[in-house]
Protein: Aminoglycoside phosphotransferase family protein
Organism: Nonomuraea turkmeniaca
Amino acid sequence: MAVGRCTHSLDIGDVVVVKRYTSWGRGEPRREWEALTLLAEHAPDLAPTPVEAALDAHPPMIVMSRLPGCVLRGQHATGEQVQAMAAALHRLHQIPFDVVADVEPAPWGPAAAVTKARAWARKQPDLGDDPLVREAFRAGTAWLASTAPDQLVTNPLPPVLGLADGNRANYLWDDHERCVRLIDWEDSGRSDRAFELGEVCEHISHIDGSLDADWLVPHIDLAPGEAERVLGFRRLIALGWFLQLGPGGPATPHNPAGTLERQAKRILQLFS
């Protein structure tokens, strides 16, 4: 759940993209290179093809193929695009479990999300006087204080390779091939599928354009009991953003006016 963090610069050519990292304290270049290499073998054409890497350079650098298309962030996604997004996630999550087991855990996951949301709730952030916002805060903090978030931390299902970043700018729609591909793998790693879906549904990028999460989830073939976990993670991720949207919150400067009130309505819908 990075807020306003710029970690790289891009040199976009006709055929390849050169990505140079401006920060790499969490191993971002290595994570991205390993993910792209794994994807090229097990899910070709789902992500950029790795071409060259200088992981020990200063700054580190990766060269990858340039993919056609436009990002879904800011778009009013059609039913076809939502189905294509679900198909892309299905392909990603079909990478064999024994392969994923050898991947390093993603730095952003269930335990980190629970800890961060509770830490923000304890700060009692200034969210203003709007009655709807206050109602959402009460509902959300009561849930955070319960045992429900803790039950999300243990994954009863096999892990998946995940982006660990639900920003819809990471989903690229190819209008010619009528498919979605995934970009920006610097935070990737072994993850929980229900958490990944919660991230996709509730990342704050949903305020740009429209991509109805309630359209997306039914296109995913969920295991028994997984739908409840997806809802739990949707609540958790949505709350994490909500708690950072007060007047002095770190997420506020990056979002348009009225985002806090819109997010409050979303919280109340998720808890209805």
